[in-house]
Amino acid sequence: MWEVVKAAGTLDLNSSYLYLLLARDFADTCVVAEHEGRVVGFVTGYRPPQRPEVVFLWQVGIRPEMQGHGLGKRLVTAFLRQPGADRASILETTVTPSNEASRALFRAIARELDTECRVEPCFRSDDFPDSGHEDEELFVIGPYRPSALNRLAN
Ligand SMILES: CC(C)(COP(=O)(O)OP(=O)(O)OC[C@H]1O[C@@H](n2cnc3c(N)ncnc32)[C@H](O)[C@@H]1OP(=O)(O)O)[C@@H](O)C(=O)NCCC(=O)NCCS
């Protein structure tokens, strides 16, 4: 996952230790896609402890040569079907205003779940201690029904 983030370029690169912890302790809210024995895409997330109806998607990344072929949608679908997303009815994530691919991805997921996608302010650029970070807008997708997940393509 750390290697894919480095290759994808637009994502915040966290420490390699952080990705090891996610794989060890949050595997039921994370998925990876493998191609010819190597990881080519991933989703990480968690359940916000105070809001059991929500599953939060932290990062989604696809190797550049695999982007634009439906893998992002397949990975988010797999993420929503993970045991860790069980009984969630709302998908949340944050996206920067300039990330057209990511915005299109989550709008497509909302459409296919037959639900709405609200976009709200979340973290502002000046909330980040490191300079040069864009605003992060909150995408709230839902509520969706469990049966809607069955309609999504694999
Ligand atoms: C964002 C990302 C995960 C999308 O994954 P992907 O496999 O390329 O996307 P998909 O092929 O599944 O496409 C999903 C939807 O987004 C649209 N889309 C994909 N790339 C797009 C682009 N560059 N511009 C506009 N729309 C785009 C597709 O048309 C599709 O919409 P549709 O179903 O309405 O036709 C991938 O581009 C990526 O890894 N980007 C770099 C890392 C990143 O920015 N992650 C997100 C941070 S929040």
TrEMBL record:
This is L-2,4-diaminobutyric acid acetyltransferase. It comes from Sediminicurvatus halobius. It holds the Pfam family Acetyltransf_1. The gene is ectA. Residues 1-154 form the N-acetyltransferase domain. GO terms for biological process: ectoine biosynthetic process. GO terms for molecular function: diaminobutyrate acetyltransferase activity. The keyword Signal does not apply. SUPFAM superfamilies: Acyl-CoA N-acyltransferases (Nat).
